[in-house]
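agent> Task received from the user: take the single chain below, predict its 3D structure, and emit structure tokens. No templates, no multimer pairing.
agent> Plan: (1) validate residues, (2) run structure prediction, (3) serialize to tokens, (4) report one or two observations.
agent> Step 1 OK, no nonstandard residues flagged.
tool_call: predict_structure(input=
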Amino acid sequence: MAFQSENGLCGAFGTSLRSRFGDLVLLCLILAGGPAYAAEPAAGGPKESAAGVALDRIIETPLSVRESRERAQRAVNELSRDIQDLKQTVVTLNKDLRVLEEDLLFPANTRLHVFVSLNVGEYFRLEGVELRLDNQVVSTYLYSAEERQALAKGGKHQLYLGNLSPGQHTLSAFFVGQGPNGREYKRGSSLKFTKEQGPKFVELAVADAEARQQPEFMVREW
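)
tool_result: status=success, residues=222
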């Protein structure tokens, strides 16, 4: 019995010793393998770090800056051309609409056009015109300095556009401005004409009379 008890104690002690030895071996394995696992980098770590470094090293060179500016300038130029083309299209469309409106409101058979032309120098400065048709005022206009300059360069101002029935009519124009030596000047001129079928054109012309050193006012048919 004593031997069995001793063998039992030895057996229990051996079992405990083997258990502790197994734990020690396992701990050694863990410690031995830990640095290896710890040293293994996380997936994608070095690649991401290298990409970040490469991105930081990308800088704009003078050449790339110039190319970017050139591309931007080309885009601006193309946009400017498109805007100019659009403006020209709008201008053309407005002209077509105005012609169409005139055709509808003023048929060619009854149309009357009255223009003002200016060919003066030192004897008269035109400021305004009053137009009467058959003793009725149909138009008045005051001219700016820019408009006088445009007329002096050969331009013509359409003072009146309207309908007029065929027959005898009287057109009178009164010109207001400054005459020689800066004096206020008002002068009238009239024209009797016959309106027939088709459009009628009348010009109110102001010119210098060099011989008399006076302005000359005329109403004439085209």
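agent> Step 4: summary for the user.
The chain has four helices and eight strands.
agent> Done.
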